[in-house]
Amino acid sequence: MNVAVPRRIKFFVGGGVAAFVLAVVTVAAVLIFNARQLALADGASGAVRFVSSAEAALNRSLLGVDVLLASMDEILDLSAVRAEWLDPEVTSQRLRSSARQSLMVRYVALIDRQGRVLGSSDAAGAAVAVSLPLGFAESVFEQPLPMLMVSAPAVSFVSAERVLYLARQLRLADGTPLLAVAEMPVGSLADVLVQGMDIAGLQVTLERASGQVLLTMPRQEEALARVLAPPLAELDVTGPQWNARARLGGEQALVVYRPLMYQDLRIAASVPLHAALANWRAARDGIVLTALGFVVMIVVVGVVSLRYVDRMTQARLAIAQSKATLDEALESMVSGFVVLDSQLRLVQWNRRFEEIYPWLKGQLAPQVPFKELLKEKARHHLENASDEEQQRWVEQRVAVQRNPQGPHEQGLPDGRVIQVTERATPDGGLVITYHDVTELRQASAEIENLAFYDPLTGLPNRRLLMDRIQQSVAANARSGLHGALLFLDLDHFKTLNDTLGHEVGDLLLQQVAQRLKACVRTEDTVARLGGDEFVIMLKNLATNSEEAASLARRVGEKILRRLNMPYLLDAHKYHSTPSIGATLIGQDMQPPVDLLKQADIAMYQVKSQGRNSLCFFDPQMQIAINQRVQLEHDLQMAITGKQFELHYQPQQRLDGRIVGVEGLIRWRHPERGLVAPGAFISVAEESEIIVPIGHWVLRTACEQLAAWKGDPRCQHVQVSVNVSARQFRQHDFVARVVEVLRETGAPAHLLKLELTESLVLDDVDDTIAKMVQLKTKGVRFSVDDFGTGYSSLAYLTRLPLDQLKIDQSFVHNLGVKQTDDVIVQTIIGMARNLELDVIAEGVETAEQRDTLARYGCHYFQGYLLGRPMPLSEIEALLGNDLALLG
Question: How many other C-beta atoms lie within 10 A of the C-beta of residue 708?
């Protein structure tokens, strides 16, 4: 019988198709429009980001040159000399040393108003030919205030390439103006910009306010020194728009610019409209094709839907007729069931019941007494039981059916567990359901196993171990026996995981677990705490503690022997050793956590003594740990209680004059008196306490430098302070040093930070970045204990260092070990080649000083010259030094 599809359904489907098509077209149009706007916005934001980063990079580069030129005053001490006092050769040598700080400039020179070169960093020295663009020098001299000026592009007579000249006015002691000039290739500035040019079609210009072009990217030599119109300032009237003209190509584009901090310079970026929309055009075509595909799909879905509705209409009557039967069958599909009448005879059953009890399938028939089925079940379930036992089981089941008490479970011979539920029917019959709960019971058993056992090794876990230790402690208190706890850790297990993988590591843990279980009795417990940590609890060893310890040691040594035997791990032959800590379980009701902690402490004692051994817990270990904790607490109190003080050890030149001091921390403890650094620095370095201590030392040294500025005895003295690795690696280290210098008013050029070789090479790029930032402020740097680490000379040449410090271990062996003499001579020669000062520490004898002087070292520090002393004593020593010079 065919039933026509109602007209209203056809109208509904057709209207839905039209609505969806309209929606797809609308969404596609909106997406295309939004994609275009997004492309333009991305182009604009990219140009803005580029200009911002380019502005910062150019400002940074120009500022570096400006600082370089301005520092000539301090380097050459121009404010204290006259022109005729300047030695061209010395001046050129100092300029060459200073010019190495900047890779941007080819050379720097000092020129007087008549154009004479007074000194140059060029190899030609004062004889170098400096040809400035016409009128550039006069424009710099006419500036009322000294400031950096940038020339128009010019062609270098030496290299025939485009260059810019950067100049700054300086004055001599008599007010005579001089010109500090740096020659910078245009390509140097281009290299600064090229890393950020990742925008398609981007055009970059460096212009003056008048429109004069100094630099273009891509390079267009013919555009240099050209005047572009309109000037960039006129673009501010409407803001950045896509209706501007590209500065180089002239096509429609977005032009974004930023002023630089020098001489009304501007960096401009032009993004052509056609380049910005290149990706959008491809996206537009994709959206159109996608929308077309959706339209076709919607139409197809509409047609299919009409056909589906037609088929559903045809099947509606058949579905309605079978719905009741289907619902009843669906409710009983998961579980098997039987329906019994009031006489407990079989009325109905389902296929699932036959699957659960396949041996009953041949006896299933309507009106069969259910007792007959129970008898067959008894023969199958209790096949080894007697007839009387089987009959008794059947009678019990019949009795239960007459008075159902709720669900109960039956175990089948094949291991399955069936939950049986019996419910009475209104007519006196019975409905019995059979549900297979085997997986549920297995899951419950697995959950219980996971709660108390390690899934990898099958050993008891921490939770079960702690419970058994608690029971053992209570049992020992009653019986008077002693037990023992062995805490075991595999040596270098992390190396195995890192080299061969965690799967191989798991194989080792499983084999270790098997060997441990083979080493102990059945009543003992072997547990895995996690990772490569195992605990062995030995019960009921002896009533005497010494005998119990002897037995426990015997078991521990047996474990050491077994675990030292080679392992075969997935075709890898591997040798592993354990470290074992032991403690006795006595009769004093110690908490399990404390016992475990004691064994753990003993195990770490083994680690510290070389591994692969057994050690019993000694109360002195706990005392040492408590003392360390107390020391950390005292250090915290020392910071807040102002218990630290700074002592100063003099640093002298060969002629005996004190040129600097090293600030060394001392701790004046309220109870223990003056504490040397060796007693607390290592603890502070292993914790975070070294950071505030280092900051205190830095601030105290800077405050002393500020106090010495007006004191003729001390105003020339440099102060060196050590910087720890933790302190230097703080992200705000540079900011904190600059802040301390600003707040205290200390002269930065007299502050010297001493870094260790390992600190410098830990993260070379980060180290160089921080050192360069502080060098621009005038801070000096020294490498402490040089020669004891593993320095890379390649990195050493990149570091902006001022001084190398020869370690005292080499100084002490001068004249004793020939190799140390060679090392010292090598360090001094290397420092001379790198134009670095070199100072030797630990100088205790005149022979050591004379040997170092003969090798070329002219700065010394050590007990021969003076021990670290309080402030009053070092100031008195400096006063004597000044009197001798006077």
Answer: 20
